[in-house]
Amino acid sequence: MTTPALYPIGTPGIPWGSAEVAAWLAKQTRHRSYEQDVLSVVDELRSRFDVVEYGRLDYSPDVYPLVAIKSRPWHDELPCMLVTGGVHGYETSGVHGALRFAQEHASAYAGRINLVVAPCISPWAYERIHRWNPHAVDPNRSFRDLSPAGESAALLRLVAEFRDSVLMHIDLHETTDTDESEFRPALAARDGVAHEPDEVPDGFYLVDDSEHPQPAFQQAIIAAVARITHIAPADRHGQIIGSPVVAPGVIEYPLRKLGLCAGITSARYKTTTEVYPDSPQANPEQCIAAQVAAICAAIDFALAHT
């Protein structure tokens, strides 16, 4: 039996305080540029879409404008489709899948939908290839009133004006090997609990809303993505990341109860994508393409079943 290595910050069994958070923050370094990778691409789309700045994150010495792409013109009578990426900044294909969709496919839906794309919810974490914000808070457990995460609070403010008209919301994520090597051990250390190792699913899967499941919607996305990359099988317990597999490549969470991004609207159709970029059967380009295929399949299904 192998005993998991202790996380290098904190004392086992004791939740982090400000000193531990500061020690963790001191270890974070910038690896890439939000301005170059995201904002410059969004700027190129201004001729075709409205670009709104829906908030600013002041993480001194850095300030990050939060931007979303919206249909031009906006027609109140049309269904609204919401695409979000980069809630976890290290999940790269979510950011670039949202941007790729806006660049190459969004115009095909002009006049049929109102589209909102928020491609990078967590720019500080995107630059540092991390899951948390600089306060060691996970934005994807923080989409609730009085949110402790500025990233989550800003998106909630953006969505408030149209949340009840959203028909479909797809939130783009990845599951990576670093979930087990870094992020889940860090979470356990932060919360003062024991880390229980789990398997990293090899392949694409979806998270449906257990409170309002839409199995046909999920399977339409799975079918589209299966043409691009492989679908994650259930583990020996019939589960993916500890949750029962309810259909090929699909598990369920209570999205709103857990404060997850995919639960922020009243959309009939909701899902969270998860690709696996560390698989020997996949590569970064394939993961981006899978995200784009998932978005298109989600919109097409929602339009066909309005």
From TrEMBL:
Q: Which GO terms describe its molecular function?
A: hydrolase activity, acting on ester bonds; metallocarboxypeptidase activity; zinc ion binding
Q: Which InterPro entries match?
A: AstE_AspA_cat, Peptidase_M14
The cofactors required by this protein are:
Zn(2+)
**One biological-process term from Gene Ontology?**
proteolysis
| PROSITE patterns listed in its UniProt record | PEPTIDASE_M14 (PS52035)
Q: Which residue range or ranges hold the Peptidase M14 domain?
A: 30-306
Q: Which domain of life is it from?
A: Bacteria
Give yes or no: UniProt keyword Translocase: no
Looking up Pfam families in the UniProt record yields: AstE_AspA_cat (PF24827)
Q: Which UniProt keywords apply?
A: Hydrolase, Metal-binding, Zinc
What family does the entry list?
Answer: Belongs to the peptidase M14 family.
The molecule here is called Peptidase
Species source reads Dyella choica
